[in-house]
Amino acid sequence: MAYTIVIAPKASNCKGANVADIVFIVDESGSIRTENFQLVRSFLHSIVSGLNVSLTRVRVGIVSYNTEATAHVYLNTFKDKAGVLQYINILPYNGGGTNTGAALDFTRENIFNEKKGSRKGIQKVAVVITDGKSQDPVTEAATRLRRAGVTIYAVGVKDATESELKDIANHPPEKHVFIVDSFANLKPLTQTLQKIMCKNIIDEAIKKPDIKKGLSNCFLIIVFMDVKLILFSNICHSFFSPVCERKDEADIFFLMDASGSIVDEDFSVMKKFIIEFIHAFNIGPKHIRMGLVKYSDDPVLEFDLAAYSDARKLERAVEYTEHIRGRTFTGKALSKMGDLFVSRRQNVPTYLIVITDGKSDESDPVRIPAEKLRAQGIKIYAIGVKDSNEAELVEIAGDPKRTFQVTNFDALKSIKEDVIRDICIPDGKDSLTLGKYELGRSDQVTDDVSAYCAIMCWVHLSELPKVLVLVLCNQSFETSLVDCLFPIISVINDD
């Protein structure tokens, strides 16, 4: 069956990113100097000019910092764009030191605060602009801000340290870290930052569960070949349900590092990653089964493939998993997995997902045990965090395409969909194709957000016989998802 996809042109500027709380955290230290700070003001002015600013749409806050941080604009200070732009023109410059970590904590505590205009359930974004290395630690402060639900972008100028910017920003750095060699080059960065930031806002809006639940003004119309019309209300969210509902059977084991280099907070983030992974699959004894092993000096079985028959029981079992600490013996843990996979089902795809934050002990190589597992038909994914070793990850997975490296545990959620997509796409195929659009294993689907919506629509309706599908959304529905779906997205049978 052949299908054609028809999509209206994408909206320009930032029209699709209609709802967000965005705070600019601006370095005003003495190394910047007055004439360069004016270029920072111009940069802020250009970025804000492209946003749909109002109290019901995009709210903007501004913090400047040197040794101490100062709140200039709270998220409820101005009711329209004009007020924000006028203030940017007179944003004070005082000089001083560079305490970026303190500014991040200040912003979390005082700006992303409901009493100061931050909205519950609305995407939160921080854009840090700095010209040098911080004089105080930034890693933990940035982690606290990200874990408060804030997506952080870092813009570095001149002497800013790339590694520090990566510690501050969200993952992946190519979407959240920007470096220019002079303040004059902030201007050409404006469009790039604005485009990426707004696209990320739209993408995150599509993923939000509360957006799915709130689509009361959306309708799905299916017209079958016999012209029988069926109208369903409030089910547009089905377009954005987990892709892996179409994966009928698989046996999946997680092997999670529980060594002492991982702090308790990061261990909890790792457990949350596994729980979110569980939610993407149809769990059941005849469908997707999952097991979990943790390890440090020795591997410890938490539960095997046959232990739990539904997602809720799996979730509770992961939540109760305790952090054991110790050293990192990944090779020994991989050797143990061969025995545990004995309970796997015949002719069912089998996967092992390894998560580690460091290199295995020198006395404990990973290559041979990993090769033995792959020889049994087990497909291995190796996920490395922080100080993980790239070469070792490739030895574990056997294929660089099944290795993932992130700078911190918070970034695990950014790769979740890539791993799930790779598992869900049938073996032997690199992508699912719809006309000129492709849903790839690990690549970004497309820069066109509307195309992404349409592809998700196709994935979940592909089993229906010869249908015409129209997705219509009420223009007055106030969410950025509307701007994604408002162009009529049609999947039309060519036959």
TrEMBL record:
Domain VWFA residues, every copy: 21-193, 251-419
Which Pfam families does the UniProt entry name for this protein? VWA
What is the originating organism of this protein? Lates calcarifer (Barramundi)
* One GO location term (cellular component): extracellular region
| InterPro entries the record matches | ECM_Assembly_Org (IPR050525), VWF_A (IPR002035), vWFA_dom_sf (IPR036465)
Q: What is this protein called?
A: VWFA domain-containing protein
